[in-house]
User: Fold these one by one.
Assistant:
Number 1:
Amino acid sequence: MARPRNFDRDHVLHAAERQFRTSGYNGTSVDDISAATGLGRGSLYGAFDGKHGVLLEAMTGYFARLAQGPRKMLAGPDEGALERLHAYLLRAVHGVPLAADVPPASDRAGAACFAAKMALEIGASDAEVKRLANDCFSVVRAAVAECVQAAQRNGDIDPDADPDDLAYLLLTIIRGTDVVGAYGHSPDRLTSIAESAFALLPRPRHR
Amino acid sequence: MARPRNFDRDHVLHAAERQFRTSGYNGTSVDDISAATGLGRGSLYGAFDGKHGVLLEAMTGYFARLAQGPRKMLAGPDEGALERLHAYLLRAVHGVPLAADVPPASDRAGAACFAAKMALEIGASDAEVKRLANDCFSVVRAAVAECVQAAQRNGDIDPDADPDDLAYLLLTIIRGTDVVGAYGHSPDRLTSIAESAFALLPRPRHR
DNA sequence: ACGTTTATTTACTGAACAGTCCGAAACCTA
DNA sequence: TAGGTTTCGGACTGTTCAGTAAATAAACGT
């Protein structure tokens, strides 16, 4: 028996995430979050315990979303695994979408992996952020590794290659495109990088 | 006939760079810079025109240093170009040194490419920083592309591969390891990523 | 309809911020 | 050694910051 909450929690966290993405953590004030979300300062503190709490919850929500996208894109039968990997790579280098139905931000810098951006900015002095960011990385890396194994079973990738090593490398490339994109390079250039990476995947020795 | 400057400009810029690297741009106050460099606020404003000016000059100095390191490591005869590329890749994934004779910071997060870190944090809203960061990227990329061409001439890399594409990809990987390193992964893991990347370089079809 | 409980808003506080200013110090020339 | 010039560093200003607390509004059970 009490007054129900008047805002949508996820909607607020999305708005906060967008703000953090464009201004960074230290570049975003509580008033900025307040303006972006429409919530007053008091409500923010009551619901999320301040700026840092908003960040942690936004990253947690991001993590939950992130786990779904690549998993759905990459999971499936062994047949076609290589094509799925190809499609994922091409999409991933153009940024991480804010939500399942929202395409990545138009400016590539704002579309960089949220977790990566926060980890680079404050991860060195914020263990919790660092851990959360690494969780984001790990879950995607695992999905990629699984898809690599599927492609290996289907004879599309050299069975001697270590799928974990390949997954690490591919994810490192995707994270690298966040940086290259922040430099201002065109989407075409990022596509070209992704295609180069895909072309270098080790094929079976004798087909 | 006047009082001479009492500090070494490069030394001050190095200290500021280290501060910016560990705390980020927005996370660094003018007092922090003052404490790190030993200069008073007035001197900082007189010599560098404030925080943003310090950043620009620090990045310019970084650019000048950065241009030399890889160029010296990668330049040389066609013979051995592939080995030089290998050595460079292995070193690069462990961070960018603060100076020629100073090894990268012990914490991998603080050793990330200074330009990349700044570009990701404020590049979206600071065109000058973005441009400087891209210059840093371009100069190293050009050095790598040249080394790739040397290796091609020596028959160590598939002559049909586009050296610029390969250089973009390799640099993207190196930038990606900055992010992966910020997640807290071990140096061994980064070495492994570098070795995987090197192993995938396209070799000539018939040796 | 009323009182309780919670959400929300607004005003407030002390600290930290970027940037300015000025007295003091250091140096060169004469 | 005196004068002129520049650097130096602490003190100062107005602003913005994160976080709190009190006041108001809204919804629910009874």
Number 2:
Amino acid sequence: MKAYLRTILTDALQRAGYPAPPDVTVERPRQEGHGDLTTNVAMVAAKSLGKKPRALADEIVAHLSADPAMVARVEVAGPGFINVTFTDAFFRRQLQELLRAGSAFGRSSLGNGRRVQVEFVSANPTGPLTVGHGRGAVFGDTVSRLLEWTGHNVEREYYFNNAGRQMRILGDSVRLRYLELLGDTIEFPPDYYQGEYIKDIARHVLERHGESMRSEPAEGLFKSAAEEEIFADIRATLTNLGITFASYYNEHSLYTDGKITAVVEALKERGLTYEQDGALWFKASALGNEKDKVIIKSSGEPTYRLPDIAYHVEKFRRGYDLMIDIFGADHIATYPDVLVALKAMGFDATRVKVLIHQFVTIMMGNEVVKMSTRKANFITLDELAADVGTDAVRYFFIMRTVSSHLNFDIALARQKSDENPVYYVQYAHARISSILRFAEKEGTVVEDGAGEIDLLTTPEELVLIRRLLQFPETVESCAMTHEPHRLADYLHDVAGTFHVFYHHHRVVTSDERLTAARLALVRAVQIVLRNGFSILGISAPEQM
RNA sequence: GCGCCUGUAGCUCAAUUGGAUAGAGUGUUGGCCUCCGGAGCCAAAGGUUUCGGGUUCGACUCCCGACAGGCGCACCA
């Protein structure tokens, strides 16, 4: 549609003897009544041609030759927009294509099979996933699904670190709880992991090994038992939400195969390091960043920055066309150094796309639910999913832009009522399923009817058809901008438009041909909702 | 103090990434079920887009400056 309009516009300009101006947009007007597509050619071209936008628009329109079977109307409006309205017949024909495409409607080859790695969650195995991880997890997975729908070859990866100070503390936390179970009096430091899950792990160690572990160091079995159990837990949480990773990448491997030292060497060679106070510093300030950062501590241990850089070098080695990193706002300071280092080492850092999501506030109605990880006084992602259901969790987490803070109202998510947006969209699907069941019961042929589509002529039907046909472009733009919330918005809109149609017109009537046509339309709505839900990772209920 | 994010209807948020008269949900008020699912629909009311400048045909959107909130600013991750 857009492509067609562009071609006839260029033809018209040529006939009128004007050069084609750059930066011409062809887009759908947000205002109903401004046609199906609008273009600003006249406005952008007016200045350099020394003409008035409206006059130029009139002139262009006069030279326009469009296929009357496709284009119904061309109007000049406002400051010089050219509004184009397509024919109803054109849209009906598109509707038939929608029905034919079925579960593939909305898929595209836009990405051309380009390899994209999406790295997300990447929480170290020190405890269950929290609500904060949840937003990143659902966001990352939905972005991945969008990219898959648009013809990208996506790999989801989880990067973790099971070494270091936090893991030592974890192991020791379990050890202390274990000794406690054996009846020893222990002193549990306040900066240790306070959660109940530590006691559970200690109990499991006791069950498996009895008292034999009394003098075992924290670093050994206690740590590995904790890691194993917590990781199993994390995977289960993610699987429950429909999220699975192609690979889990352990930071440790970067040390064993020399990737860390290679980075140090590369930075040294470029004169981007210096020693001070026994530590090795990275000259980030020389590359435009705020200050220099330590990459190897005086203890000889690298800071997290160094393996992060090495990990990205590894990503480049694998040859991805695009690398997407997703993390929360609290890690915002960690990536500029990585990007700048990559650039200095000769990599095309623009292929790394960092997406940051802001914080989640859990609400219970109007009350803020206070949480503290330290005191282990938090709601886990698992608990949240068990409470409100996985559909609500997924929908709520992506229904807002990631750049703004999210209020997750548990009371609202729990509600099985019209106030709950996820029920609203799913309800439309359930209602359609019900209509189709009813039609079948009445003995109407449900499957056919595409041939009667010309009988769809009322405003409510045509508005609905147009809305449905916007699905592919919505998916594409959501995928390219990495903004899944707009898909949720769109589906909400489709559901609403469907409800309006439903309340204006009966689908199953004694008029067989009209019934067939409307059943086809209703099936089309179902297809769009289903496909959309599948991208969002929520279910398409036949009944509720 | 510095960096990043945010500020839009009473509340929670959109706004096709610079387009025309800023839209939804919720809440408030008033209507709609002998009929395919009322978990729905229709209507009304609700706005100086935090404030002040600038850029241009055109600004919620971009730039500068205030103000307010959030998150960071380690030889922790």
